């Protein structure tokens, strides 16, 4: 039995067209113990475009995540009201760039409809999502320095439930054929993980990388072992599915990896409280 999938998107996210019902049906069919809807809410573009007074930088530069947020919360509430199965259904968000506005992040955290917040860093201030960068033209060392510096701000703030896909840029760097020795960022990564632990928060194993050419989870074993060695115990599992076929994808591998790294339990969140499931 798969323990959980606590990172999935629906059509409330700009990069998915999946109805929540089809995602939940798939999760139910897989026999998941817990399942979370976590649509993208990017805080760096939370308000309508006019608020920022800037042009869209490309066709995927979406604004007004405030409207998406409200839509997503209403959808999740309705799903929780209608769902009759035995699986624990969780209303979450993937909060992108909380470092753009920590006060806004904290006000959203007051929402009683919200069980679970994944904090993710998809882009650096005034830069595009790591997905869009041209790594042949970029100073990859400087990018990773900036990535861990921004991540540190998020971890030090520490009011999320789990930190999303630690090492997110590595997929795009690897897919661009650029090799990096991550030894240099071991210490910054450890400082981020220490802050997460100090704040009583957790991290996720995001298994989407198993479905991609990259072939590894976010984060991979070396960071999970570091997290364990530093005393980290709060760990969730999420596929980052954007369509029903990907729900639960890589979760068995992620659970086996967690176990082999010395974790005995994984957890899901209700009203921001961790609930543990034995592996
Ligand atoms: Zn993400
Ligand atoms: Zn996601």
Question: Mind explaining what this structure looks like?
Answer:
With 279 residues, the protein is an alpha/beta fold. It has a single domain (4-278), classed as Metal-dependent hydrolases (TIM Barrel, Alpha-Beta Barrel). Helices cover 35% and strands 17% of the residues. It has helices spanning 20-30, 49-52, 65-82, 102-108, 140-157, 168-175, 186-198, 221-229, 251-260, and strands spanning 4-5, 34-42, 88-96, 116-120, 162-163, 202-206, 235-238, 265-270, 273-278. A 7-stranded parallel beta sheet has the order 1-2-3-4-5-6-7. Strands 8-9 form a two-stranded antiparallel sheet. α5 packs parallel to α7. The longest helix has 18 residues, at 65-82. The mean pLDDT is 97. The structure holds zinc ion (ZN) (2 copies). Residues 7, 9, 94, 240 line the site of one zinc ion. Residues 94, 120, 122, 164-165 line the site of one zinc ion.
Show the helix and strand layout.
Elements: E1 4-5, H1 20-30, E2 34-42, H2 49-52, H3 65-82, E3 88-96, H4 102-108, E4 116-120, H5 140-157, E5 162-163, H6 168-175, H7 186-198, E6 202-206, H8 221-229, E7 235-238, H9 251-260, E8 265-270, E9 273-278
Parallel strand pairs: 1-2, 2-3, 3-4, 4-5, 5-6, 6-7
Antiparallel strand pairs: 8-9
Helix pairs in contact: 5-7
Bound molecules: zinc ion (ZN) (2 copies).
């Amino acid at each position: 039995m798969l323990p959980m999938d606590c990172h999935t998107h629906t059509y409330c996210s700009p990069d998915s067209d999946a109805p929540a019902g089809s995602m939940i049906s798939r999760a139910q069919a897989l026999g998941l113990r817990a399942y979370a809807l976590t649509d993208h809410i990017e805080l760096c573009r939370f308000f309508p475009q006019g608020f920022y007074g800037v042009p869209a930088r490309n066709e995927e530069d979406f604004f007004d995540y405030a409207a998406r947020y409200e839509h997503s919360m209403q959808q999740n509430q309705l799903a929780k009201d209608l769902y009759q199965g035995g699986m624990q259904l969780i209303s979450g968000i993937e909060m992108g760039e909380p470092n753009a506005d920590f006060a806004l992040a904290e006000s959203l955290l007051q929402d009683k409809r919200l069980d679970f917040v994944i904090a993710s860093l998809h882009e650096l201030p005034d830069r595009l999502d790591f997905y869009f960068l041209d790594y042949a033209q970029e100073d990859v060392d400087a990018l990773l320095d900036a990535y861990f510096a921004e991540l540190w701000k998020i971890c030090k703030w520490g009011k999320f439930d789990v930190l999303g896909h630690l090492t997110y840029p590595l997929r795009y760097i690897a897919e661009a054929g650029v090799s990096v020795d991550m030894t240099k960022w071991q210490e910054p990564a450890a400082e981020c993980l220490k802050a997460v632990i100090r704040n009583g928060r957790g991290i996720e194993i995001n298994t989407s990388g198993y479905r991609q050419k990259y072939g590894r989870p976010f984060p991979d074993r070396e960071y999970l072992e570091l997290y364990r060695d530093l005393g980290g115990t709060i760990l969730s599992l999420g596929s980052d599915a954007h369509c029903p076929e990907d729900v639960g994808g890589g979760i068995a591998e992620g659970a086996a990896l967690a176990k082999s790294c010395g974790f005995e339990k994984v957890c899901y969140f209700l009203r921001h409280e961790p609930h543990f499931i034995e592996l």
